[in-house]
Amino acid sequence: MTAGLAGQAGEEVRALHAFFVAWFRGETDRLEDFAACEAALAADFRMITPDGGVHERPAVIGRLRAAHGSAPGEFSIEILQTRAVWQSSEAVLLEFIERQYRDGKTASRRSTALMTIDTAAPRGVVWRHLHETWMQAAG
Predict the structure, then answer these.
(1) Distance between CA 20 and CA 28 in Å, rounded?
(2) pTM of the entire structure?
(3) What is the pLDDT of residue 138?
(4) 49-66 residue pLDDT tens
(5) What confidence tens digit (pLDDT) does each residue in 12-49 have?
(6) What string of DSSP letters covers 11-75?
(7) Helix pair angle (57-66, 31-39), 10° resolution
(8) Most buried residue among 26, 72, 115, 122 by CB atoms closer than 10 A?
(9) Domain 5-135 architecture
(10) Among candidate residues 12, 13, 11, 6, the one with its CA nearest the CA of residue 89
(11) Phi, psi dihedrals of residue 102, rounded to the nearest 5°
(12) CA distance 5 to 126
């Protein structure tokens, strides 16, 4: 991963997924942690899930709120192979693999995220669009 905007976006991906792990495990319920998550998603954020569902920011925030403590057992997320696919001075299209471990099972998805500079965001960039695709299990 190169430095600059692409590096900043990669750090955002890792930090937000670390929050997800703590939130889903129920290890944090601090409102300021959730507020930082909300601040990382642009007002026009849009997500396409691996099953083809399209969700606007309010629905994503609602689902995240409802998921608090939903994975109290063995749960972790690993972010792999982060790379900039395209970049300008204000935006970056980042590709990465998200590997989730839950109760002895692994699920992976390849994602692309469009992020733009926003100095008010926790890590200086906001998510504008996320597209996730399931990856087949090895073997």
Answers:
(1) 10
(2) 0.93
(3) 57
(4) 999 999 999 999 999 999
(5) 999 999 999 999 999 988 788 899 999 999 999 999 99
(6) HHHHHHHHHHHHHHHTS---HHHHHHHHHTEEEEEEEE-TTS-EEEHHHHHHHHHHTTTS--SSE
(7) 150
(8) 115
(9) Roll (3.10)
(10) 6
(11) -140, 115
(12) 11
